[in-house]
Amino acid sequence: MKSHLVVVLSCVSALSGCSAIARLYPVQGPLSTQTPPPVYVAKMTGAFNSGTFFATLNGSEACTGRWAQVTRPKASIDAAAASSAAADNMSAQWDAVYGQGFYVAHVLGTRLYARAVLTGNQGTVLNVELYKPDTPVNSNVSTIRGVAKDNRNNVYKVAF
Fold first, then answer.
1. By C-alpha distance, which of 146, 152, 153, 151 is closest to 24?
2. Which of 131, 123, 77, 81 is nearest to 104 (CA)?
3. What residues make up the domain containing 49?
4. Phi, psi of 156 (to 5 degrees)
5. What CA–CA distance (Å, rounded) separates 80 from 135?
């Protein structure tokens, strides 16, 4: 009976998904020049390979969208897909936030790499990329790193 209860609770927990709170810190663009620069709060929910992403900008603009894991291209068969994925990435933003060469050294090719596009109710479009290191030592949500860029020339560091 106890084992049945554990299985049921595990299934309910997995189906309900997980959530994590993130902070968006402006590092480039008009918002980064404000003193002090604003810090925005975001919430990521979901499980496995996709979910929802919410952020509140400027105290009143609600931005929502879906995040999804970026699939890694298979060997050389998907050369066109690999070049297309490379064109879509935000490697310049990764390097601007975390240091030159960070994207290639840490993000490119990782198993846990996701993207989201959030649309705000006041016209802001926020592109977000997240990654989590593959090492088993880093198993909690605080190891997730990310970057974001909006259509108003702001670049953000995303931290959990």
1. 146
2. 131
3. 19-159
4. -125, 150
5. 29
Instruction: Answer yes or no: is 1 within a domain.
Output: no
End-to-end Cα, the chain, rounded Å = 38
Do the beta carbons of residue 51 and residue 45 sit within 8 Å? Answer: yes
Looking at the domain assignment, is residue 4 inside a domain? no
CA dist 66 to 119, 138, 142, Å? 10, 24, 20
Judge whether 11 lies within some domain: no
- With 0-12 CB in 10 A as exposed, 13-18 as middle and 19+ as buried, what is 90? buried
pLDDT per residue as tens, the chain (160 positions): 443 333 333 333 344 458 899 999 999 999 999 999 999 999 999 987 899 999 999 989 999 999 999 987 665 544 444 444 454 679 999 999 999 999 999 998 888 899 999 999 999 999 999 999 887 665 666 788 999 999 999 999 999 9
